[in-house]
Write a structure and sequence with these properties.
2 domains; five-stranded antiparallel sheet; 19% strand; binds flavin-adenine dinucleotide; 12 strands; single chain; alpha+beta; three-stranded antiparallel sheet; FAD/NAD(P)-binding domain
Length: 311
């Protein structure tokens, strides 16, 4: 059984899960994970209680720790893990655009060279270092480091004929600004910081592809707090946790929680961006967690079988 928020599961994934006999429930958040002698009881916001032999948790590790604590797991231990896991300050702002043209980069020999891949629009490393340093200090990047993605150039079916869908991802933008400014204004009619920042991001692409800004028909802006609120990504960090060396591999999300297991919470398996190899759409951590869960189940069956034989 899969229980989840309103994440984007593609139709193909849903069909595959159902073919394999899965039961899927969306929009019913898990509220606690309770260890029982038979395995786990998962409680949800709608009041359901689901019993299972194992649980594979794909949400943020901090969320999983909250769910364990709500289910009666050792609070002191959870507080120790929580205090050393570094989420990071949030890493970017997304601007999704509807346009009537693709960006035309004069520096690209062919249109496809600029639109059939990721276009990282930075002049040099110092621009990246400045943007990163400002974000660490809780400030906006002096010049946004923009990544341009022209998805409709690769798949025209995602936009109406003659139009395009362009996504811009800009790093680094802190979730919380040191000077107290808010990303979204509470004053009706006042333009928010998120919208100003989106203007700067579009203008930055326009510097590399002159005329692009005039092709924008509509846009949807997601600042780090928007990403946190809409997608449950704590701190707006799309990788769940800082992808720094001290939190990668056997240190992700924490040395004691690596290996997709939680000490003292037998048959709970961790997966997703909070675990090795981190964020991004690779499915690698899901494969590892599944292999470990299957190996454990086989070992348990063997123990039962040989135990019975000895009796
Ligand atoms: C704007 C943006 C641009 C990105 N660009 C790229 C890119 O170009 N390339 C790339 O590789 N990656 C990109 N990423 C990152 C990538 O999407 C993520 O790292 C990846 O989706 C993480 O997947 P996940 O399944 O581990 O976690 P998530 O996608 O965070 O999924 C966790 C799920 O758990 C659910 N959940 C949370 N709490 C509960 C609860 N209590 N009960 C039940 N369910 C719960 C959430 O609703 C969510 O569906 C981007 C992300 C964003 C937001």
């Amino acid at each position: 059984r899969a229980v989840g928020g309103s994440g984007a599961l593609t139709e193909a994934m849903i069909a595959r899960l159902q073919r394999d006999g899965a039961e899927l429930t969306l929009g019913d958040a898990v509220t606690s994970l309770v260890r029982r002698s038979h395995g786990w009881t998962t409680r949800t916001a709608s009041g359901r209680e689901i019993d299972s032999r194992i649980v594979v948790a794909g949400c943020h590790i901090v969320t999983t720790l909250d769910l364990l604590e709500a289910g009666g797991h050792d609070s002191a231990q959870i507080a120790r893990w929580r205090s050393t896991i570094r989420v990071g300050p949030g890493i970017g702002t997304a601007v999704r655009l509807a346009t009537d043209a693709l960006p035309m980069y004069p520096s690209a020999d062919r249109i496809e060279d600029g639109t059939h891949g990721l276009a990282l629009l930075v002049r040099d490393r110092s621009q990246l270092r400045l943007a990163h340093g400002h974000a660490l200090a809780g400030d906006l990047p002096p010049t946004p480091a923009v990544l341009g993605m022209s998805f409709s150039a690769l798949d025209p079916t995602i936009a109406p004929p003659g139009q395009h869908q362009i996504s811009l991802w800009s790093q680094w933008h802190p979730h919380t600004l040191a000077d107290g400014r808010q990303w979204r204004s509470n004053v009706p009619g006042e333009r928010s910081l998120a919208e100003f920042e989106a203007d700067r991001i579009v203008a930055e692409l326009d510097r590399y592809a002159p005329g692009f800004a005039a092709s924008v028909l509509d846009r949807f802006v997601q600042s780090p707090p928007d990403i946190e609120r809409e997608l449950g990504l704590i701190g707006g960090n799309i990788m769940h946790l800082d992808m720094s060396l001290d939190q990668m591999m056997m240190w992700r999300p924490h040395p004691q929680l690596a290996g997709h297991r939680v000490p003292g919470a037998d048959r709970l398996y961790l997966t997703g961006a909070s675990t090795h190899p981190g964020g991004g759409v690779t499915a690698a951590s899901g494969r590892s967690a599944a292999r470990i869960a299957i190996a454990d189940a086989r070992a348990a069956r063997r123990r039962t079988f040989f135990g019975r034989k000895r009796e």
